[in-house]
Amino acid sequence: MTADDVQAHAGALARRALALPELAEARTVAAYVSVGSEPGTLALLDALRARGVRVLLPALLPDNDLAWGVYRGPDSLLPAEHGGGRMTLLEPAGERLRPRAVTEADAVLLPGLSVDARGMRLGRGGGSYDRVLARLERARVRPALVVLLYDWEVVDRVPQEPHDRPVDAVVTPSGVRRFGRPSSEA
């Protein structure tokens, strides 16, 4: 995809995501800054911040866990090299909050490679967001879990490991698909 394609999809994705009741009512949202050809998130981050939402962004720790920082606008993002320079991520400048800060979120926006018809998310394999989901479960909090993808990344089935947890919704530039929460949490 070209940079123009990513930008065009980012605007549509932001509009769809901002219409979600889970984000409209959220006071704190844990999100991420997209990289490469991932669906763009900056427009969404800025719109949430303009609404007065506290937006938490991850900072990758050496053990692949995630610390968090408050997003204060595009100028507050700094490039951080990881994996011996193989990967550069934009991370929030300023105070680092502990990994458990994510438990304060009303909604968590998760990156992914794809989501299937069951709501199972396929990540990049580093386990960072698996740790986030496990942390939320241990804390007995249940923020809305939303994945941002392109339309073609919603597939019939992805591989599933025993620790994987379904998400509540996937937002694509053309729409929203919801998945049911377990009845014990209704």
UniProtKB/TrEMBL annotation:
Top EC class, one word: ligase
Catalytic activity: (6S)-5-formyl-5,6,7,8-tetrahydrofolate + ATP = (6R)-5,10-methenyltetrahydrofolate + ADP + phosphate
Highest taxon of source: Bacteria
Keyword presence, Ligase: yes
EC number: 6.3.3.2
InterPro entries on file: FTHF_cligase (IPR002698), FTHF_cligase-like_sf (IPR024185), NagB/RpiA_transferase-like (IPR037171)
Cofactor names: Mg(2+)
Molecular function GO labels: 5-formyltetrahydrofolate cyclo-ligase activity
This protein's UniProt keywords: ATP-binding, Ligase, Magnesium, Metal-binding, Nucleotide-binding
Family statement: Belongs to the 5-formyltetrahydrofolate cyclo-ligase family.
Record's protein name: 5-formyltetrahydrofolate cyclo-ligase
Source organism of the structure: Streptomyces althioticus subsp. attaecolombicae
